[in-house]
TrEMBL record:
Identification of the protein by name: Tripartite motif-containing protein 16-like
UniProt cross-references to InterPro entries, sorted A to Z: B30.2/SPRY, B30.2/SPRY_sf, Butyrophylin_SPRY, ConA-like_dom_sf, E3_ubiq-ligase_TRIM/RNF, PRY, SPRY_dom, TRIM8/14/16/25/29/45/65_CC
Pfam family, one: TRIM_CC
A GO molecular-function annotation: zinc ion binding
One GO cellular component term noted in the UniProt record for this chain: cytoplasm
PROSITE patterns documented for this protein: B302_SPRY (PS50188)
Domain B30.2/SPRY intervals: 309-502
Keyword Cell wall biogenesis/degradation (UniProt): no
Keyword annotations of the record: Metal-binding, Zinc, Zinc-finger
C-alpha cells in the first residue's frame, strides 16, 4: 500500500498529490470502474476518490481533497490510497488499517507493525488468517459437538441405568428371599430333627421306667405271698406243727432282699440344651460374619469406578505444570450454611458468626456443620485448585455430592467420614483429615494451599504452593463418585478464598 509518510514536508505532500491530481484529470470524465473508491463528499455526480483520510475516515476526490492539501488544520491528517472499507479498525500506534494477522501472538497488525514489532513472526493476511482460524474453529466445533453428543448419550444411559439398577436389585432381593427361605426351611428341619431325638429319648426313658415298674410290681406280689405264709406260722396249734410248717416254709424261702432300682435321672438329656445353644451361637456368628464380610468385599469391588488408562503425561512438578490442570471453582449459594457469607463472585467464604443470613431453605444446604460446596465437580483426569485459608478452624478439601447436609454426626463433616479428604488448621497447627483420622503436618504457615486430584492414579494430594510445590500429604483413593470442593469454617472470621489459578 502506498502511503504518505508522516515525516513528509507539507510542500512535498502537496506536490505529490498535485501530480496525482494532474495524472487523474483525464480519468474523471470516464466511466467509473467497479473497483474504484468513490468520493464521500460528491453528492450529485459520483467521482473517483483520490485519497482516503484515516483521521476523517472519509475518501476524497480531486476537488474535495484540496482542503487537506492547502489548509494548515489538516496537515496532520493521515492520507493513504483510497480504501473501500474506510471504517475498518485501525492500528492505535500507526493509525493504519489492519491488513494482516500474527499467528504467533494472535493479534491483528497493520503493515508497519508487521515490519517493526512483529518482524520475523509468522503472519497472514486477515482473509487467509480468518479462513485458517475458521477451519480450526469448525474442527473444534465438531469435536465439541461430538463431546456434547457423547455426554448426552452418557446422561441418557445413566438415567436408564436407574431402572436397570432397580431391576437388578429386585432380582437380587428375590434370590436373597429364596435363599433365606431355604435357610429357614433348613432351620425348621434341624429343629424337627432335634425334637425327634428328644422325643425318642423320652419314649426310651418311659419304656425303661415302665419295665422297671412292672418288675417291681411282680416282686411286690412275691413278697406279699411270703408275708402271708409267715403270718400263718404263729397260728400253729402245737410246737410240732409250728416246727414242721417252718421247715416247709424254709425250704421254699425266696430272696427277700430289696431289689436295686435304677432310676435314670436323664442328666444327659439336659446336655442337649447346651449343645443346641452352643451350636446355634456358632452358626449365627458364622452366618452373620460370612454374609457381612463377603457382601462388603463384593460391594467395595463393585462400586469402584472403571480403571482409566494411565496418563501418558509425566506427573506435574512445578507450579507451571500444575496450572495446566487448574480449575476455577465457585461456591454454590444453595449449599451455604446460614452463618457463612459468600462474596468475590462466589469464590470467597467467610464465617460471620453470630450474624445469621436469611438464606432460603434448600435440600442441598448444610444445616448443622458450617460448610459450603462448590457448584462445579471434578471428574476423571487431573484437577488442580488453589485456595487461601485464614484463621484457626478453617478447612478445605474434597468430598462426594452424597455427603449428608442435615446431620449433626461427625460423618456429616469433611473431617469425619471415609469419603472426604481435607486440610485445615486448628490450635495445634495444620493437619490433614480422612475418616476422622488426623495427621499433623510439620509446617508453620501455608499462604496458599494447592489441592490436586488425579483420577488416573487414584490420589488426592495437598501442596504448599511455591515455585517448587512442596508436597504436604497425599492419599491413595479408590474414587466412587465425582468430587466437589467443600469448605468448613468452624470459627468466627474464618475465611476460605478459592483462587482463579488460571
Amino acid at each position: 500500500m502506498a502511503t504518505i509518510s508522516s515525516g513528509t514536508s507539507e510542500e512535498d505532500l502537496k506536490e505529490s498529490v498535485k501530480e496525482e491530481l494532474i495524472d487523474s484529470t483525464g480519468q474523471t470524465c470516464h466511466s467509473l470502474l467497479p473497483e474504484d473508491v468513490l468520493c464521500d463528499s460528491c453528492m450529485d455526480t459520483p467521482s473517483k476518490a483520490l485519497k482516503s483520510c484515516l483521521t476523517c475516515l472519509v475518501s476524497y476526490c480531486e476537488l474535495h481533497l484540496r482542503p487537506h492539501l492547502e489548509k494548515v488544520k489538516f496537515q496532520n491528517h493521515r492520507l493513504v490510497e483510497p480504501l473501500h472499507d474506510i471504517d475498518c479498525p485501525t492500528c492505535d500506534i500507526h493509525c493504519l488499517p489492519f491488513e494482516c494477522f500474527c499467528l504467533m501472538d494472535n493479534c491483528c497488525l497493520c503493515l508497519d507493525c508487521a515490519k517493526e514489532a512483529h518482524e520475523g513472526h509468522i503472519t497472514a493476511s486477515v482473509g487467509e488468517a480468518r479462513a485458517k482460524i475458521e477451519t480450526e474453529l469448525q474442527q473444534k466445533h465438531s469435536e465439541i459437538s461430538q463431546s456434547v453428543s457423547a455426554t448426552e448419550k452418557a446422561i441418557t444411559k445413566l438415567q436408564s441405568n436407574h431402572d436397570t439398577i432397580k431391576s437388578s436389585v429386585q432380582e437380587v432381593c428375590a434370590v436373597i428371599e429364596q435363599q433365606f427361605s431355604r435357610l429357614q426351611t433348613a432351620v425348621q428341619e434341624a429343629k424337627k430333627g432335634a425334637m425327634a431325638v428328644l422325643e425318642g429319648e423320652q419314649r426310651q426313658a418311659f419304656r425303661q421306667a415302665e419295665g422297671i415298674q412292672a418288675h417291681l410290681e411282680q416282686r411286690k406280689g412275691e413278697l406279699m405271698k411270703i408275708l402271708a405264709q409267715m403270718n400263718k406260722l404263729p397260728k400253729a396249734k402245737t410246737d410240732i406243727d409250728f416246727l414242721q410248717e417252718y421247715s416247709q416254709w424254709k425250704k421254699r424261702e425266696a430272696d427277700v432282699s430289696l431289689p436295686s432300682v435304677y432310676v435314670n435321672q436323664m442328666e444327659h438329656l439336659r446336655s442337649y440344651a447346651q449343645i443346641v445353644t452352643d451350636a446355634t451361637q456358632e452358626l449365627c456368628d458364622l452366618m452373620l460374619s460370612s454374609y457381612s464380610e463377603k457382601m462388603n468385599l463384593i460391594c467395595k469391588s463393585g462400586n469402584k469406578m472403571p480403571e482409566s488408562q494411565p496418563s501418558p503425561l509425566p506427573d506435574p512438578q512445578t507450579r507451571e505444570d500444575f496450572l495446566k490442570y487448574a480449575r476455577s471453582l465457585t461456591f454454590d449459594p444453595d449449599t451455604i450454611h446460614q452463618f457463612l457469607r459468600v462474596t468475590a463472585d462466589n469464590r470467597k467464604l467467610t464465617n460471620t458468626s453470630p450474624w445469621q443470613h436469611s438464606y432460603s431453605d434448600h435440600p442441598s444446604r448444610f444445616e448443622y456443620w458450617r460448610q459450603a460446596m462448590t457448584s462445579e465437580s471434578l471428574y476423571l483426569g487431573r484437577h488442580y485448585i488453589e485456595a487461601e485459608l485464614s484463621g484457626e478452624g478453617a478447612h478445605v478439601g474434597v468430598t462426594y455430592k452424597s455427603i449428608d447436609r442435615k446431620g449433626e454426626e461427625s460423618t456429616s463433616s469433611i473431617t469425619g467420614n471415609d469419603y472426604s479428604w481435607c486440610l485445615g488448621r486448628n490450635s495445634r497447627g495444620f493437619s490433614v483429615w480422612h475418616a476422622a483420622v488426623e495427621t499433623p503436618l510439620e509446617v508453620t504457615d501455608i499462604p496458599v494451599i494447592g489441592l490436586y486430584a488425579d483420577f488416573h492414579k487414584g490420589s488426592v494430594s495437598f501442596y504448599n504452593v511455591t515455585d517448587t510445590m512442596t508436597l504436604l500429604h497425599s492419599y491413595k483413593v479408590d474414587f466412587l463418585e465425582p468430587l466437589y470442593v467443600v469448605a468448613w469454617l468452624k470459627k468466627k472470621d474464618n475465611i476460605i478464598f478459592l483462587l482463579n489459578a488460571k
